[in-house]
């Protein structure tokens, strides 16, 4: 373990438990060592996966980095804290895996990304789907004309979340909290991977690759942010990217991204690393791919210079979408007749939303254009990239 990279994890509960398990996996391989855990309340022995030892614990992130000699910090804390914690680590020369979304606004993203660049530390943004080997494989298919000329990229996510999901933390389901941006909406947090993956397949990764964003944000739940929404992104590649999402699905399914060509289509279920190629004159071809873990990729970068898969600059386009959602009017509450309670599951569903989400990805149209009676086209907000900092 003497050569293992010492790591501090900030935010070990909630999604942070996944990081604990992943660190344990890499620690078993002798690659990393969990040196510290930053939580407001220390983890109990029953919260640490067996085999991780007894890492130092503290609520003071900066002091913990110093005392442990951490070389890498994994930040999985509330969205509004990302930029400050990332900069704290970077200024101490500690490399970073920063959970998505990297920041709640484009200005905070730029402050974070520029500050990290000045320090020279390495930073990986936690869009795990972009570590899938399917991503370069699909890009190759597109470049080689497997489905002809590309007309656009669609994304669909029909998930379900109980009402307790919005009570799990003070910032959950909020657009802002105590005057600070949060922007915890369906497309910016739980289904952010659908947006980032669709943009990446289109080659739309940097901020200046986005020419404009149309948003339709709605909510069935009694929250501040959106739980049913769609966006259409104008791109420098002159191909639209449309992503539709809901957390109020009738029959929740696997989210996916679909590449449309004039001679076929490619569907990518990004959580499963599964790809379906359909093209004229041939039978369907289904493939499964491996995946490179982003923390492992970061450590390899530090050891032998392996290229990082998801740098801050490679998430600039995604952050332009986040900014458009932040600047859009607050989400419209769906009329009472447009949603139904599911008492057994303690959640709300929007009848017909599963089909609308799929149709948006399939036709590259917004909810209002698909005839959703509760989507008012007059409320569709279009943001030019010139409108944001």
From TrEMBL:
Molecular function GO terms recorded: nucleotide binding; oxidoreductase activity
Gene3D superfamilies xref list: Dihydrodipicolinate Reductase, domain 2, NAD(P)-binding Rossmann-like Domain
Keyword list, A-Z: Oxidoreductase
Name of the protein this chain belongs to: Gfo/Idh/MocA family oxidoreductase
Superkingdom in the source lineage: Bacteria
Domain Gfo/Idh/MocA-like oxidoreductase N-terminal: 7-127
Domain spans labelled GFO/IDH/MocA-like oxidoreductase: 137-266
